[in-house]
Structures are given as structure tokens and as C-alpha cells.
Amino acid sequence: MKEKLQKAAQNFSRAIIQPVMFMAVSGLVISIAAILKMEFMPEFLRKIGEFFFGIMTSGVIGSLSVIFAVGIAVATAKKKKTDAAIIAITSFMIYLYANNTWLTLTNRLAKAGEQGLYGTGQNTVLGIQVNDMGVFVGIMIGCTVGFLFNKLSGVKFHKYLQIYEGTKFAFLMTSFASIALGIIITYVWPFINSIISWLADIMATSGPFGLFLYGFFQKMLLPVGMHHLLWMPMFYTPLGGTEQVAGKAVSGAYNIWLAQLGDLSHLDSLSPSISFLTNLEPMVLPIAISLAFIKVARPENKAKVKAILIPIVILAFLAGVTEPLDFLYIFVAPLCFVVTAIMFGLGFAVSGLLNVRVMVGNFSETLPSLFVPMDLGHQYFLIPIMLGMGVITYFAFKFLILKLNYQTIGRGEMDEYEAEDTAKVSKDKEAGLSLIVKGLGGVENIKEIYNCFTRLRLDVSDEKKVDTNLLKKYPSSGVVENGKNFQIIIGPGVEELCENLKTFVDNLKSGKSVLVESNEIAARQTHAKSSGKQLIKLYSPAKGELLPIEEVPDEAFAKKTLGNGFAVKNHDGSIYSPVDGKIMTIFPTLHAIGIESPDGHQVMVHMGIDTVDLKGAPFTIKVTEGQEIRQGERLAVMDNQAIAAAGKDSMVIVVLLGSTEGKLTAETGAVTENQLVFEN
After folding, report:
1. If you write DSSP's letter for every residue of 611-664 in order, what string do you get?
2. First-to-last C-alpha distance (Å) of the chain
3. How many angstroms separate the Cα of 543 from the Cα of each of 489, 503, 569, 570, 632?
4. Which of 16, 414, 639, 668 has a beta carbon 3.0–4.6 Å from 618's, enabling a disulfide?
5. How far apart are CA 630 and CA 330, in angstroms?
């Protein structure tokens, strides 16, 4: 029973995060629009700000209930997601009309007063007056549709009634369920609403202590992926407070913040609810923790530790994603994680105690706070608070790691061979996917594959068949085991990995693909030598300036971590194949192409340095995966101006994966495309 409840909670958590992920995008637009519409802005900018602010707040924030209804239903549905979306929106409308009709028939439809329907427990949703459940109605409908859809969409009838089977039958039943819910809620919700008000009052009257508990438990729930269940209601429901802004009732701390941000000129103070948004973690804790890790690392490992931690800190600052860092130490230094949770909670508590009333999070979330008047937001307290949090966290981590001899990153040996092997596996898509499948105990043991914002989540039939050591060989920030549910911490690229893994598993079941053996990559790399075909010739992929790989301004290439090779800089953007072979991999961000030569050599053409951040925008690929290609055929076209404008280097690096042997056969300096430049 406990396992089923955990599974249900995890399913709900991953489903509810789907629509929330889009809130960050709309929130950014609303924040920028709110800045543009401020009184000190030129009139034409204010008009632009008012235009977008009104559209986005009404269209997105004002429609959260229907967004959650559809989002949760689709995320929960195991198949035919388009049908699930149609049923969800229809059920939502049926619920609204059922609720309104029953309130009307029983003479309980509230009448608007001087402040409209505020305080009556009712509100208008899509123009229909109903019980004011806020986003909860969307969550309720989404969960109901998802549950009934999965239960009933496979129902079969006699051939004369086939038109009503499957998803049509599911639609019929969810329609009746929505009508029933609409009626029942008219009696139940007033009582629930009073409980919500009571809980909100407790949070409000608890002051800094309530804020501390909010932050502490939110962080402690992260390892099991349940932290969304705590912050989401505070952001979007009456649990996060209710305020009158510009004559309208607004519920939820985040909604209140956006509304008051657009009405600053008419406010004498900002809502205390905004304290739930003062998340100082991304700005300070990753820096303090990383400095502690670097300090206690072995001297010979410090450079490697920095290379790992600096990108993680930048990710936290820009995107607010801290899980790659959290999972570096949650299990090896658990008391340090408790310290993080305490500091996370104290950040909320102290900010609330000092009446800080601005949203703080990642860079884009924090930016609008700079435009809030100091006498309203009290932002001047933020720097002292963050400095205090950072210093305490740094010394607490350093003390605990040394006192308890925690083996955090860099404290033990950082094996070069294992690092190389991980890099090689990550470059072969099917090999990496095969690694996950085998680690999970095979295709037959995999029940479900899904993801949240940063984690690949996997349900299995028999957890005893899972080899977590094998799963850890896949490039990630950690593996979490929770009964029959396993999570691989990937980061922002998890959605693509999830879809690739689903497709790969389906192909395995249908016989279209086979598992790559663990030694196959190594066999491919040594095939040329074992068969007597040791020599491979590589030609320049572009016209430009040749330089040895040791001079590439990227440590991973310069130290030949991936293999030996060369680079061409100051080229015109036309990229050609350096070798005959088959296109094995086109990276999702289009910045790299993997080619397998007839002798089994693995060659990677990497276009630019750190251009993975550009998400494919400057690249036009001229080949497809599986295509046979001749040396000298065009692979891609690079937009060098766009790359330079993004502050990136456009040089092309050609790497012979897995081999540190070989040498340049041409002098460095000017080369033409298709000129022989390297032999192994």
C-alpha cells in the first residue's frame, strides 16, 4: 500500500510540473512587460508593456485552472494523448456549467457587491460564475480525466457498439464524473475553502518560522522528487495568500507578485505573501558549496573539480536548476544536505523578518526586483543576508566534510580512465541507451519511462534486477533509488533523453533495434588495429587555418580526453566530411556530427567551442543519420557571424574518438578544404 501511495504521489508530482514549466516562460514575458509599463518609461514603451502585460496575465495567469486541467491529463495519459487533451478541456467546461447550473437551481449563486465577488467564495472562470477553487479545479479535473482515461480507454464493445468504445467511452464517463463533481463541490468546497483560509492564516501568523518550515521541507523533499507539491500551491493557490490588486482578487504568491509588479505606482506596500518567492539559493548557496568542495579537494584534483563545478554554478544562477549540484553530495554527505535545507529555510525566514518583498530566484526571475522601489521591496537587505548565508554554508560544509571525512568530489582519486570511458559512451547514442536498459534489468523489467524537469524517472517490475552501478556509468549527476522507481539526474536535456529512450525500447520490443554490447564501442575503436587496418587519413573539413588539437582553447580537446585530432579556424562556414563513412550521430543541438569510417574508426566533427549553448540555431545540417558519405561531401553550414555575436569560437575540431595516436601531416597555417592533414 505504501509503495502504491508513493507511486501515485510521484506520478502526480511529475504530471503537475509539466504545465508549471511553461509558467516560467510566461512569467519572464510578464516581468519584462511590467518593467516596460512603469511610469518612468517612455510612453511608447509603456504602451508596449501594457499591451503584453494585459494579454499574458489574462491569457496565462488568469487561465491557470484550464492549463492545469489539460496539462495534468495529458501528462498522466499513457497513450492517445491528443484524445486525453480533448476530453480534458471538454470535461473542464462541463464541470463549470454543472457547478453554475446547480448553484442557480439551489439559489446559492452569489451576488456581486461593491468589490465584485471577492469574499463570497465564488468567482468567474471563462465567464462562468462558479465556486472559487482557483487552480484546484484544474488539478481536480486533470487528475480525474487522467485516471478514468487510463482505466477506460482500452474498453472494447460488441462490433455494433464499437463507435462508443475506447476513448469515446472514457469521454462519456468523464463527462458524467465532471457533472457529479460540479454538483458535489457546491456543498464540499465552502468547507474546504474555510480550511484553506485557516491554513493560510496559520502560515501568515507563523511569520518567519512558517517561512523557515516552508523552505526547509521544500529542500528536504528534493531527493524523492516531491518538492513540487509544496511550492506549487504556495505559488498559484490561496495557500500563498489572497490580495486585492487593482480592484481584482488575486490568489497565490506568484500571481500576487506579478499583479502588484504591474500596479506599483498605486501601492503603499507589497504583500507579505511575496516572502514565499524570496528564494536566495540559486544566487548564493551553489557558490558557497562549490568553494567548500574546491577548498577540501586534493591539490591535484582542484582543477578538475573547478571544471565540473563552474558550469553547475552558472546553470543554477541562470536557470535556477540546482539538482546537478545537490546530487553530487546528497548521499555522500547527508549532513551537508541538511545544512543546505536549513540555510534554504533561513533565507526565507530572515528575508520575511526584514520585510523583504521582492521575488528572488534565478537571474531572469530576480531582474524585475531591481525596478521595485526600495521603500516597497527593501532589497537593500538582500546582499547582507546572502553574504551571511554564503559564509555560514561555506564553513559548515568545510567543517563537516573534514570532521566526518566525507568523500565529496575531489577528495578521493579522480580516475582518468573512467572519465574517458564515460565521455566515449555519451557520444554513442544507442550505446548509452543500451547501458540504461541493461542497468534496469532489460526491456522486460521496464514498466514506465517518464521525466520531470531535470530527472529521468523509471519504474521497474523487479527492483532486484536493477544494477545501479551500471546505471551510474551513464553520464549524469546521480542515481536515486526509491523502491521500484529509479531516477537518473540528467539536467535540462532530460526530455530529449526520455523520448530517445522510449523510442529505443519500443524498437527493441519490435526487433528494429538490438542492445549494444558493453564492449562494442571499444571493439569498434580497436577494429582497425585488430584487423590490420590501422591507418586512417583525415582531411581538412574547411578552408582556413590548421592548428594542432593541443592548441584548442578547450581543456577537454587540448588534453585529448576524447581523442587525438586537429582544428581549423577562420574558415568560411562550409564544413565538409574529413573521411569516408556513415553518419552515425547528429547531436540534437546540431553542433557535432559523428561519423564511422569503413574500418570502424569513430570520427567526430565538432563545430565551434561551447556552441551547444546555442541550441542548433547557427547550424544548417546537410546530412542525415544513417547516410553513407564520401570524403569531401558537405556536412553542414555554420553561421559564423551568429556564433561570434553569441561570444563563441567558430573553429571546427575533428577528433578521432578513443585514440591518442596519430600526427599532423600538414604544416600548421593555411589549409584548403579536402587537404590531407592527419594520419593515424
Report:
1. GGGGTTTTEEE---TT-EE-TTSEEEEE-HHHHHHTT-EEEEEEEEET----EE
2. 60
3. 41, 39, 9, 8, 12
4. 639
5. 49
Query: CA angle at residue 188 from 240 to 23, to 5 degrees?
Result: 35
Q: E strand or H helix at 81, and its extent?
A: helix 81-105
Instruction: Measure the CA–CA gap between 270 and 168, rounded to whole angstroms.
Output: 49
**Annotated catalytic residue 498:** no
CA nearest to 15, candidates 116, 120, 149, 129? 149
- Whether 452 is a known active-site residue: answer yes
Q: Please tell me the distance from the alpha carbon of residue 665 to that of residue 556, in angstroms, as a whole number.
A: 23
Q: How far apart are CA 464 and CA 450, in angstroms?
A: 21
Displacement of CA 546 from its chain's centroid (Å): 39
CA-based torsion, 220, 221, 225, 229: positive or negative: negative
Amino acid at site 609: I
Residue at grid coordinates 587555418: 545
CB 204 within 8 A of CB 352: no
CA–CA distance, 207 with 272 (Å, rounded to integer): 9
Angle at 69 between CA 66 and CA 71, to 5 degrees: 105
Q: How far apart are CA 176 and CA 182, in angstroms?
A: 10
Q: Are 637 and 573 in contact (CB under 8 A)?
A: yes
- Which residue is catalytic, options 228, 571, 601, 606? 606
C-alpha cell of residue 167: 476513448
Nearest to 271 by CA among 362, 199, 200, 358: 358
Nearest to 358 by CA among 289, 247, 283, 249: 283
The CA distance from 481 to 472, in Å, is 12
In the 8-state DSSP scheme, what is residue 594?
A: E
- Average pLDDT, 10 consecutive residues per value, the chain (680 residues): 58 63 67 76 89 83 84 85 92 96 93 70 86 82 92 80 83 96 91 65 74 87 62 77 83 88 85 91 94 91 86 78 79 90 95 93 84 92 96 96 88 51 45 86 90 77 88 75 83 74 85 66 41 71 93 82 87 93 84 85 88 85 88 92 91 85 88 88
Spatial distance between the Cα atoms of 432 and 629, rounded to a whole number of angstroms: 24
Structure pTM?
0.52
